[in-house]
Amino acid sequence: MIRWLGRGLVALIALYALVVGGFYVAQRPLLFTTGPGLETPPVYADRPITVQTLTTTDGIKLVGWYMPPQPGQPVILFFHGKRGGLLRHKPRWDAIHAQGAGFLVIGYRGFSGSQGSPTEAGLHKDAEAAWAWLSARHKPETIVIHGYSLGSGVASKLATHAPNARMLVLEAPFTAAVDVAAETYPLLPVSLIMKDQFRSRDWIGDVRPPVLIVHGTADETVPFGHGQKLYQMVRSEKTFVSIEGAKHNELPRRGLYPIIWKALSLT
After folding, report:
1. What is the model's pTM?
2. Which one-letter DSSP state was computed for residue 41?
3. Which of 112, 149, 152, 156 is catalytic?
4. Cβ distance 126 to 157 under 8 Å?
5. Is 68 exposed, middle or buried (0-12, 13-18, 19+ CB in 10 A)?
6. Does 248 participate in catalysis according to the annotation?
7. What is the mean pLDDT of the chain?
8. What are phi and psi of 211, to 5 degrees?
9. Is-catalytic flag, 149?
10. Cβ 32 vs Cβ 110: under 8 Å
11. Nearest to residue 86, comparing CAs of 65, 114, 62, 117?
12. What 8-state DSSP symbol labels residue 57?
């Protein structure tokens, strides 16, 4: 019996090690879904979107879409979530265009026709390149940094280096990607083996621009509590808006942009 139990224990340990090893190997494909390659932007006759090439400090060429704002309107620097494809966010571009605002969105390295492969360190370099490009053309006081889901981790860190930005908008944000992963895989030593942890909770207290957090109460991907906890850590001027019953990807069609325009005193 003791021998049988010992063999069973060894088998369980081996199986657990196999599962941990599988997570370690597959973690980046789980975190980053690079999706389609180059896409054609939608057409707005009065202010067309132009395709830009941005270069990071480590020499990676990024694809960006840029639409200039009308006079007196802000420009949104948008960082998307884990899933690639810029055209899938067309309802955002429609809302921004209708307001008269402008935007710059980049495909992270490895996404949407951009060079390279995604890592946390790489995405932060991508964000810095996007900020450098946009702030060379628009005053920082007119730039709104907006991060959605995974992009909230990118935006939060960038905002610590952009004290004069007009606002930081965090849509369905996490306290950290590693926190979400630990909740999803509670039996795995996620904090020890996850390479790309995006610890927004470590950065948000150093953000100086006003912060707007918008989260759906029925978010099935990043639980609503993450947005609440992150909000408590903000030290600058801050606003939290919950959208009742909204899921993770529903906020743009559930009133997100009117909330943003109101926070910016545009309505």
Report:
1. 0.94
2. P
3. 149
4. no
5. middle
6. yes
7. 95
8. -120, 130
9. yes
10. yes
11. 65
12. T
Distance, CA of 41 to CA of 73 (rounded, Å): 21
Q: Where do we find the tokens 């006759």?
A: 45
10 has a pLDDT exceeding 70? no
**In terms of DSSP bridges, do strands 143-148 and 167-171 run parallel, antiparallel, or are they unpaired?**
parallel
Considering all CA atoms of the chain, what is the largest pairwise distance in Å, rounded to the nearest integer? 81
The per-residue pLDDT for range 214-241, each reduced to its tens digit, is 999 999 999 999 999 999 999 999 999 9
**Side chain identity at 211, as an amino acid letter?**
V
Q: How confident is the model at residue 17 (pLDDT cuts 50, 70, 90)?
A: confident
Q: For residue 161, what are the contacts with CB-CB under 8 A and spacing of at least 6? A: 128, 131
**Distance between CA atoms of residues 148 and 77, nearest Å:** 11
Q: 178-204 as b/e, with b when 16 or more CB fall inside 10 Å?
A: bbbbbeeeeebebeeebebbbbbbebb
**Distance (Å, whole) CA 172 – CA 152:** 8
Helix ranges (H only) for the chain are 2-31, 90-99, 120-135, 150-159, 177-184, 190-193, 200-203, 224-233, 256-263
DSSP letter at 83 equals B
Give the N- to C-terminal CA distance of the chain in Å, as an integer.
75
pLDDT digits (tens, 9 = 90+) for 80-92: 999 999 999 999 9
Q: Which of 196, 200, 219, 226 is catalytic?
A: 219
Is residue 256 pLDDT above 90, yes or no? yes
The angle formed by the CA atoms of residues 259, 265 and 267, to the nearest 5 degrees, is: 70
Task: Label residue 9 by pLDDT band (50, 70, 90).
Answer: low
- Residue 99 in 3-state DSSP? helix
